[in-house]
Amino acid sequence: MIIKSMARKAPSFRQLIDYMLDIDKADEQYHVYQNLFSRQAAKMEQEYVSNAQRMAKRKNGNYLYHEILSISKTSQLADNQQKQRLRDIAYEYAKRRASSNLVFGALHDDHDHHLHYHLLISANALGDSKKTRLSKAQFDQLKKGMEERVLKHYPELEQRVVINQEAGERLSRKGAERKRRTGKVPQRDALKAKLNTMFNQCDTKAAFFTALNEADLALYVRGKTLGVKHLTTGRNHRLKTLGLLEHFQTLSKRIELDEAAHAQDKASIKQPKLEAVKETSTERQNTDQEETGTSKQDDTQAKPTVEADSAEKKAAKETESIPSEQMEVDSVAMEQARRKAEIDTIRQQRSDEAEVKERLKRQDKP
């Protein structure tokens, strides 16, 4: 089932009535009337015009709505049985859509595969100056409710779910017309093919963004909306509208699992190296402590500056033996070793100064 609504901003009541009453398309016995007293085209027009004059004039205001109800034909019922059921559906729709408004409906049977009603609905209720307006959300709810009712109460019509189906690929009006005539939409189909290839072949973020760049595309996020932007034309394409949102979500999960696996492998490699570096740092600290204790007892040790240079060279030599990955992992341990070397040097300098003062005192004695 398909439901369409088109607003008109001009009081073209007679033109639409004449189109709806086309003898080659319309079937008079299935006309629909709501809040209308006349049955002739001219008099129905007068009722619509008279009722519209009650509304306050407003620039770009709506005078009427031209709406269409369409169902696909089934081989399980005769034509008149299908038309009777569709007439009942049209009356129910008019009641739900605008129960107090003027409504005229005509059934057209000029297509091989479907029947449809044209409805002329006044913008305001009968005798009312205010317009009857449905928000987009309200109109969507109305359409969904009507489809659910048809599927439940008229299963013999064998209608498939259209309005309530999950969001997938959608086309603009021009795109839909082109696809109806030619069976394809060249630019859109080419873009879908490119993105499908990327989603199926890329396993990492780097590979995906490289592929996007080579295709002159960029990923964008606007609120909860995901899409791609063509960098040359500047045109945005929503993944949901292209019917590719699920494909992108599958790619995201695949990349997430790949990154998690790499992170785990990297952690398993770095852990033993980290332990080895910590052991080396501990041994170096013990050695430095032993050397410090020995230097305090040895009166003939070298000058503090020489020992400091030696300690720095020793630390540098040990550092060179550590791979670059270990350096990144154990940066904190290296910083602690450097500070310890500085503290040891300061302590040695103070010890030497105290020893020099003691010698000078002994020399000064008679």
Write the layout of secondary structure elements.
Blueprint: E1 2-8, H1 13-20, E2 32-34, H2 41-52, E3 64-72, H3 79-98, E4 101-108, E5 114-125, H4 136-153, H5 173-182, H6 186-201, H7 205-214, E6 217-222, E7 225-230, E8 236-238, H8 239-242, H9 245-297, H10 304-320, H11 324-329, H12 331-364
Antiparallel strand pairs: 1-3, 2-4, 3-5, 4-5, 6-7, 7-8
Helix pairs in contact: 1-2, 3-4, 9-12, 10-12
Can you characterise this structure?
The N and C termini lie far apart (123 Å). This protein has helices spanning 13-20, 41-52, 79-98, 136-153, 173-182, 186-201, 205-214, 239-242, 245-297, 304-320, 324-329, 331-364; strands at 2-8, 32-34, 64-72, 101-108, 114-125, 217-222, 225-230, 236-238. Helix 9 packs parallel to helix 12 (331-364). A 5-stranded antiparallel beta sheet has the order 1-3-5-4-2, sandwiched between helices. Strands 6-7-8 form a 3-stranded antiparallel beta sheet. The longest helix is centred in the last third of the chain and has 53 residues, at 245-297. The chain is an alpha+beta fold and 366 residues long. A hairpin with a 2-residue loop joins strand 6 (217-222) and strand 7. The model is unreliable at 299-308 and 319-331 (pLDDT under 50).
